[in-house]
């Protein structure tokens, strides 16, 4: 599955990738060189987190695309357009976005569109009202521009690399192009009801994107807490959990488990369910009295999830075989 | 008698902008490193009393480092400021080549010698993060030689520090260690507890600062800075908890090779216990920790008690 990343020069495309996928501190991205040609970033942390991001140079113009660029856009499942929110007025960028929408939709009707209203940080956006205003302004303007055409409505996210908003937005993008997410969500709902869990996430440990959650709304506070918990678990395991001969990837293994208790009566519980994949849940301490039952249920979830992904893999394989057969 | 005074006077000095107030805020006031950018300069002397380990009280004198304050310290305020000092912490900005800085340091040492000859002197070579990793040792050694040359033969301990990593916790853990009157008592008890639990190591942290108070290890570990790293990790997490309007209580982390417990221990400490023996059930270790709490309450009190 491919994700194309488009946007103006200096909009922050490469910085996003550096922060999320290469773990570079946001402050250091100031010195990022501009991208001069298409770059591919392959993410394959586990069978559940597998996609490719195609970073387009900021100079790319849809009206002058070459055959190679066209091929990339024809094959992608989702286009992210990064809009620099600190670079007003937006008019020209929005025009560019709409023409990308029209063009890509014409040659690839299955493609989703997502706009990141980016750099929503700093002094300009101190309060939430300003952020919402920008969001409304942009979406209204885009809606006007595409009103008479049969183009799908894009989705919008407010993002910044200085907080978790970029992770949340990318998590949603990845979920959108992973067809199994619906099933996983149903299973997580069942798990949540049976174990009296308040909120549950399935995390890719490396990027800290969540690839699935239950159907209750995501609040940034619980997401941040879970994400910080993964940091703690990995950092502590790096100190004590490595036997000399092992490489760094084995810090998170089959038996990785963590429990953090807070005085608000909340317990955070983390378990490994697949290579570099963790299930993190928030449970009230009173409901955490029978840990073995929760463990058993998580084990059932793990089995189910594995079967779903295996079925998908098999289906893709069969599809390819029948194609080559014809 | 000064040694036994429960009020420990700690002087924090150094040139303006060296980072004195920033480090104080991180260690004692739970600031995030990035929030220290908003701190203004310290006007004259900022005195704060910090409760430490329940009964100890640190009188921390954060002395603003602008030139005109500095002159006051060495002239009109010399007698009051440098009297009864237990610990002097002098902070150097590793980048600064200003000779005046060294002169001030020299004057501090002289004043300490006159008024509090028993005081411990620590020098923090700060803002190490601004220097490329491979050049840090070189820069530190150079500064250290210079400091020792200017210390009038007194025993001085130098640390390289940065607010962005665990080095800050290392330095401050060592410093507070000198302020605990009977830390041997604590180490001995930890030793016994560690062998009773068949644990690899046991570490005691002060509750609010998460500085290391005492530790005992029955096994060698390759990473000598691991405790400071843990201080840093847990403190960061405590701050994220406070964003969620909750307070961190305890944590258990394990994988195939180890099991780590961090738990509230006595009223003024947290304990960390590491076990690598997978045949010991975590619940058993947890029970041992719970049962030891009451006993250690007394031990911690004894270790901070003032000899009569």
UniProtKB/TrEMBL annotation, chain A:
Recorded superkingdom: Eukaryota
Biological process annotations from GO: cellular response to starvation; negative regulation of autophagy; positive regulation of TORC1 signaling
Keywords from the UniProt entry: GTP-binding, Nucleotide-binding
Entry GO MF terms: GTP binding; GTPase activity
UniProt-listed InterPro entries: Gtr1_RagA, P-loop_NTPase
Coiled coil (residue ranges): none
Pfam families hit by this protein: Gtr1_RagA
Keyword set includes Nucleotide-binding: yes
Record-level GO cellular component terms: Gtr1-Gtr2 GTPase complex; lysosome; nucleus
SUPFAM superfamilies, per database record: P-loop containing nucleoside triphosphate hydrolases
UniProt cross-references to PANTHER family, sorted A to Z: GH16429P, RAS-RELATED GTP BINDING RAG/GTR YEAST
Family: Belongs to the GTR/RAG GTP-binding protein family.
Descriptive protein name: GTP-binding protein
TrEMBL record, chain B:
Superkingdom in the source lineage: Eukaryota
Species this protein is from: Blepharisma stoltei
Pfam families (UniProt xref): Gtr1_RagA
Transmembrane keyword on record: no
UniProt record similarity statement: Belongs to the GTR/RAG GTP-binding protein family.
CC terms in the record's Gene Ontology section: Gtr1-Gtr2 GTPase complex; lysosome; nucleus
GO biological process, one term: cellular response to starvation
Protein name: Ras-related GTP-binding protein
UniProt keyword list: Cytoplasm, GTP-binding, Nucleotide-binding
Gene3D superfamilies cross-referenced by the UniProt entry: 3.30.450.190, P-loop containing nucleotide triphosphate hydrolases
Molecular function GO labels: GTP binding; GTPase activity
Subcellular location: Cytoplasm
